[in-house]
Specification:
Layout (H helix, E strand, L loop, with lengths): L10 H9 L2 H16 L35 H12 L22 H7 L14 H20 L5 H7 L18 H7 L2 H11 L20 H20 L1 H13 L6
Amino acid sequence: MAASRPSFICTSCARALRTGNASQTSRAFSASVAQQQTSPDLPRWQQTPPAMQMPFRLRPQPKGLAWRVNSEPETLDAMYDRFVGRVGEVAKGQGLAGTRGRDMLPEEVKWLAVTHKSFDHGRRGFNDRLAFLGKRIVDLQTSLALLNAPQAPSATALSSRGDVYKHPALEGADNITAFAKNNVLSASRLAKVALNYGVDKVVRWKPKKSENLQGSGLDTVLAHTVYSIIGALALQRGGEVAARTARERVLQPLGLR
């Protein structure tokens, strides 16, 4: 009497074990995985790293149209040219091929700065660290702009009482409040600046619902990308280029000078 198969082994696997085809199946599977890992040497922004690819898909394909992002370098370079503008002239002495926005960053960094962590499950890199640095720079430039802005009427009335600790350098200190900075750097306002430069055409992300980009957080993603571009410029071209880009290309369109 043949031994009964264990309940945790399916019929096809049990048949493969009896006929001796299990080793051939495993060898074929290993060969397919090895063949997948020997893909051409493409940059990371252009493909998922082979070691991070799965041999098969676990989830079913989503219904509806597949979300596609920009993969044309010329479209990306045009956005950087609009975003940086004439600020690139500050980096003339850094041995660059030109002073346009496309010349400010290496190819890999240009794609990394516009890649959100929702794109390809973050396997091609994402811009969180660049955005963290860029936000600190924009916050500082916003504080300096608010400090030099005209004083609010209520603050002027309070300072006219002849307070003891009064100094001309502190006249605009009342303008620097968390409420004022949050109003200036709200995600919706930064998103409008990003739309003017065409950042929405090149940002790489995966919305939760392709038919509802606003509900999927488009404004937050665009604001995040603006910060990451400033952070990338700071790391590659120095603080002067990044600070001037933040002042002239981000804060001035928002009404701060």
